[in-house]
Amino acid sequence: QLLELLRHRNCLLHHIMPFKQQKIKILIVDDTPANLLALHAVLDCSDYELIEANSGEAALEALFHDQDFALILMDVQMPGMSGFEAVELIKSRPQCATIPVIFLTAISKEDKYVGQGYKSGAIDYITKPYDANFLQAKVASFVEIYTINQQLKLEISKREEMTRQLRLASKVFEHAGEGMIITDPNTIIEAVNPAFEEITGYSAEETIGQTPHMLSSGRQSKAFYAEMWDTLSTQGKWEGEIHNRRKNGEFYPEWLHITALKDENNSVTHYIGSFSDITAHTSARQSLYHLAHYDHVTELPNRVLFKEVLEHELQNAQRRKSILAVFFIDLDHFKAINDSLGHAAGDDLLKEVAKRLLFCKRANDMVARQGGDEFTGLMVDLARAED
User: 380, 361 in Cβ contact below 8 A?
Assistant: First the structure.
């Protein structure tokens, strides 16, 4: 299942130009320029790239730099190295051994050279003067074989690369620190990884065949899920914070990323979810927020939070055309208490004042500590100043 899913995920294969879009290279070897011209004339085709060599030595030099030839057309009798000798050396090189060689020879010499030619490694003979149609057909047949072989090699290369990538993806799935879950289009769970089991407390056996609803904490509203599925439908992915429940009943926050995998018809085949337990992160975030917005002695909102709430309530009051009231309160002789009884007694007094102020206020009102012996109060939704 995982292998099938990953086939649709980010491109795993190298993009290779199809062979039919490349020119097929053919090496033609002959010491006579007229013969080379004749071969060019007969094999004039936009699909072929004809590489010339005027001797056996030149042919070996060409093959030293490039072995990607579909075919070699080799003259037998050439000054210096003969065609037989050249072919024997070509076939002795592993990188060139599979390139087919066709000898080109005069009719009068054919019987004498046939056995020696095949022994040296040639695959066929064409006699001179050759029939143009016959030569074209012969070359085309070998080129077709070459093309098929190259396509097979490409397919094997693709399969090997896909296998390698999928093995790597499988290892990532198994060893990822994030929990991962794979479902079918109907959100039936098909696979989970070990991190999922560790985070949720549910084993793979308990999970497969169920739906992710088994983890629901009930803390998200229907509107939350409706928006999530709408985003998944339109954008193909969704991520955000969500609260789920472990097998032991404990609630925990997680950061969840969901991806919809689609086939060539743009139909969803699977959903992949990956998530991290962000309990520690959330706790740290809440602690930092509390430190930044609350007084550490009285636990009342501090001046920063009071200012934020005041600005918000001023906008509400203007919109609703209502009245709000702000109180500024300080304590007389607070310094004397600190100096005579100590700062611990002063802190106790601040806590008691905070408790009494909280007892006096309405549910929607606010009491904050500005610092020192100074407190502020905020009353909202007043009908008139006298209130």
Answer: no
- The total number of residues shown for the chain amounts to 387
The backbone torsions φ and ψ at residue 139, rounded to the nearest 5 degrees and listed phi first, read -60, -45
The token duo for 272 is: 């992949």
Q: Is the C-alpha dihedral spanning 77, 78, 82, 88 positive or negative?
A: negative
Burial of 339 (0-12, 13-18, 19+ CB in 10 A): exposed
Please list, residue by residue across 75-96, b when 16 or more beta carbons sit within 10 angstroms of its beta carbon and e when fewer do.
Answer: bbebeebbbbebbebbbeeeeb
Report the candidate in 34, 128, 106, 117 with the shortest Cα–Cα distance to residue 52: 34
Nearest CA to 353 out of 332, 380, 326 is that of 332
Q: What is the distance between the alpha carbons of residues 27 and 99, in angstroms, rounded to a whole number?
A: 10
* Strand bridging mode 374-382 / 366-371: antiparallel
| Residues forming beta bridges with residue 51, ordered by sequence position | 27
Could you tell me which of 205, 153, 211 has the C-alpha nearest to residue 182?
211
- This prediction has a pTM of 0.48
Per DSSP, the residues of 90-153 read HHHSTTTTTS-EEEEEEGGGHHHHHHHHHHHT--EEEEESPPHHHHHHHHHHHHHHHHHHHHHH
For residues 261 and 272, the answer to whether their CB atoms sit within 8 Å is yes
Chunked in runs of 10, what are the mean pLDDT values of the chain (387 residues)?
44 41 84 88 83 89 86 88 87 86 70 69 79 86 86 85 80 83 93 91 93 90 91 92 92 92 90 87 78 91 93 90 92 92 93 94 92 93 85
Helix (H, G, I), strand (E, B) or coil at 201: coil
Rounded Cα distance, 107 and 128, in Å? 6
| Pairwise CA distance, residues 321 & 323, whole Å | 7
Q: First-to-last CA distance in the chain?
A: 69
Is the omega angle on the peptide bond into residue 185 within 30 degrees of 0, that is, cis? no
